[in-house]
TrEMBL record:
It is an enzyme of class 1 (oxidoreductase). The lineage of its organism: Eukaryota, Fungi, Dikarya, Ascomycota, Saccharomycotina. Keywords: Carbohydrate metabolism, Oxidoreductase, Xylose metabolism. Gene3D superfamilies: NADP-dependent oxidoreductase domain (3.20.20.100). It catalyses: xylitol + NAD(+) = D-xylose + NADH + H(+); xylitol + NADP(+) = D-xylose + NADPH + H(+). It comes from [Candida] anglica. PANTHER family: ALDO/KETO REDUCTASE. Pathway: Carbohydrate metabolism; D-xylose degradation. Belongs to the aldo/keto reductase family. It comes from the Eukaryota. This is D-xylose reductase [NAD(P)H]. The gene is xyrB. InterPro entries: AKR, AKR2B1, Aldo/ket_reductase_CS, NAD(P)_OxRdtase_dom_sf, NADP_OxRdtase_dom.
Length: 317
């Protein structure tokens, strides 16, 4: 099952998320995911594991498990590379690490421009801006960065371009100056943070949505995130468990199907081979209207990934 993007390409509706995949096991995990049937791999410069992702994918290609054309490879432009002159530098590093001559989708990771950090100084730079733990910013309008991404598609190095962690106002503004419309918006999306107005607006503009952290707090437990540690886990929630039992499915499968049934792509990850396959097999059953409404009642506006906690950056303020 896939989503037809406004760029003309097909994006699988279920993919493998590469965030927090350890470099030590990453290549093997990626290879196994291909073997199970995953074709979309969602990575980013900031994840620090794109060399290993590339190793796993190239081995799968070399072993005849898949062809490059069958893969949908995603990466994201990190905050330190927003200046138009630095966007090609960033993409060339991504392509070098992956070992490919193009990627299928390149997203602006956050609508935030940090001060440029040369790759040889620190890569990925994370929150480092050349001055210890102090944040420094560049005055780069988002449209300028977007125009640089548009050029990458014209150069043939990127097939589709998109955005991540943008609010509705920023998208509304970007669309007024964009020559090429974003193909995808990636957002935090789970029953505790449903963002229905944003979803409706973006889909009405022909922009596909990818949800990250579909399991809500589960994705942030290993980071010792205070909000995640102090809220009910969705896997254990009575409503989710009741729906899962009714369909003879796992809570994870219900959470993923809740998104894909509304044409929202998902990018879960798992180290467990059985769960890896279960996460992929979520489109052969349907939730009832009543079940979807029951899940809708879980909305709390509970956001786990908020740049305000970094340095009072008001993306979602």
């Amino acid at each position: 099952m896939s989503i037809k993007l406004n760029s003309g390409y097909e994006m699988p509706i279920v993919g493998f998320g590469c965030w927090k995949v350890s470099k030590d096991t990453c290549a093997e995990q990626i290879y196994n995911a291909v073997k199970v049937g995953y074709r979309l791999f969602d990575g980013a410069m900031d994840y620090g594991n794109e060399k290993e992702v590339g190793q796993g994918l190239r081995k799968a290609i070399e072993d005849g498990l898949v062809t490059r054309k069958e893969l949908f490879v995603v990466s994201k432009l990190w905050n330190n590379f927003h200046d138009p002159k630095n966007v090609p530098i960033a993409l060339n590093k991504v392509l070098e690490d992956l070992g490919f001559d193009y990627i299928d989708l390149f997203l602006i990771h956050f609508p935030i421009a940090f001060k440029f950090v040369p790759i040889e100084e620190k890569y990925p730079p994370g929150f480092y801006c050349g001055d210890g733990e102090n944040f420094h910013y560049e005055d780069v309008p988002l449209l300028d960065t977007w125009k640089a991404l548009e050029q990458l598609t014209k150069d043939g190095k990127v097939r589709s371009i998109g955005i991540s962690n943008f609010n509705g106002g920023l998208i509304y503004d970007l669309l007024r100056g964009a020559e090429i419309k974003p193909a995808v918006l990636q957002i935090e999306h789970h029953p505790y943070l449903q963002q229905p107005n944003l979803v409706e607006f973006v889909q009405s503009k022909g922009i596909a949505i990818t949800a990250y952290s579909s399991f809500g707090p589960q994705s942030f437990l290993e980071l010792n995130h205070s909000k995640a540690l102090n809220c009910p886990k969705l896997f254990d929630h009575a409503s989710i468990k009741t729906i899962a039992d009714a369909h003879k499915r796992s809570p994870a499968q219900v959470l993923l199907r809740w998104a894909t049934q509304r044409n929202i792509a998902v990018i879960p990850k798992s180290n467990n081979p059985d769960r890896l396959l279960q996460n992929l097999e979520v489109n052969d059953f349907d939730l009832t209207k009543e079940e979807i409404e029951e899940i809708s009642k879980l909305e709390q506006g509970l956001r786990f990934n908020d740049p305000w906690t970094w340095n009072n950056i008001p993306i979602f303020a």
